[in-house]
UniProtKB/TrEMBL annotation:
<dbReference type="InterPro" id="IPR002347">
    <property type="entry name" value="SDR_fam"/>
</dbReference>
<dbReference type="InterPro" id="IPR036291">
    <property type="entry name" value="NAD(P)-bd_dom_sf"/>
</dbReference>
<comment type="similarity">
    <text>Belongs to the short-chain dehydrogenases/reductases (SDR) family.</text>
</comment>
<dbReference type="Pfam" id="PF00106">
    <property type="entry name" value="adh_short"/>
</dbReference>
<dbReference type="GO" id="GO:0016491">
    <property type="term" value="F:oxidoreductase activity"/>
</dbReference>
<protein>
    <recommendedName>
        <fullName>Alcohol dehydrogenase</fullName>
    </recommendedName>
</protein>
<keyword id="KW-0560">Oxidoreductase</keyword>
Length: 244
């Protein structure tokens, strides 16, 4: 489906990002992982065949995002797919009356500014080619209230807004701009919300995965299926393909 396509995946060191790296590589894409978790990122890069390229990239730093996009052009001559998956979430989950604004700045710097950096620099190199695909990961928190902490909720609403604006502007250049809004998936990021603890990038333990899935399934409207990171990767694969 993606034979020969060049894709950058931010947040590709773990969770949904890592699942997407594996699936895109399987379908023939040349993948560049952009992340700040160097060891997990390199492990993911070397675990796929052909190996992905790992590039240390802090999405809050525009110079880093510019550099990884330039790397795609230097190594492959083009960028076909940009996936903005890197994200974080609030550690404070109490009342808004006691909310620390530093937390808001920290989260939105990654989840909003980082996504805008990705859209901006992907557009920069896609517009001359008159084609491309930009996909960002939002959340049901971008549609509903009360499911997640304040900064994360605001940020995911913003991602949907950025996606709509990007689609409205860039469509005339043949560039498709979409986002995916997942429910809770057992990833390191969701662990911070569901288990109320810091979680390092990399594989989630089986015990913690069971706990997170039990929590998510308990409050889900649709009973039966359990959402996996691979399901989100499949949605991204469809959106990145020519049939989307």
């Amino acid at each position: 489906l993606l034979e020969g396509k060049v894709a950058i995946i931010t947040g590709g060191a773990s969770g949904i990002g890592a699942a997407t790296v594996r699936l895109f590589t399987k379908h023939g894409a040349k993948v560049i992982i952009a992340d700040i978790a160097d060891e997990p990122g390199k492990k993911v890069a070397h675990s796929v065949s052909p190996p992905a390229t790992y590039f240390h990239c802090d999405v809050t730093n525009e110079k880093d995002v510019r550099a990884v996009v330039n790397l795609a052009i230097e190594n492959h001559g083009r960028l076909d797919i940009m996936l903005n998956i890197a994200g974080t979430i609030d550690t404070y989950k109490g009342s808004v009356a006691e909310y620390e604004m530093e937390e808001y700045e920290r989260v939105t710097k990654v989840d909003v500014k980082g996504v805008l950096h990705g859209i901006k620099h992907a557009a920069r190199v896609m517009i001359p080619n008159q084609k491309g695909c930009i996909i960002s990961v939002a959340s049901i928190a971008g549609i509903l209230g009360g499911t997640s902490p304040y900064a994360y909720t605001a940020a995911k609403h913003a991602v949907i807004g950025l996606t709509k604006n990007g689609a409205a502007e860039l469509g005339k250049y043949g560039i498709r701009v979409n986002c995916i809004s997942p429910y809770g998936v057992a990833t390191p990021l969701f662990a911070q919300l569901a288990l109320n603890e810091e979680y390092s990038p990399g594989p989630v333990s089986k015990e913690d995965k069971v706990k997170m899935e039990a929590l998510a399934n308990g409050i889900a409207n649709l009973k039966g299926p359990t959402l996996e990171a691979e399901d989100i990767a499949e949605a991204a694969l469809y959106l990145a393909g020519e049939k989307a």
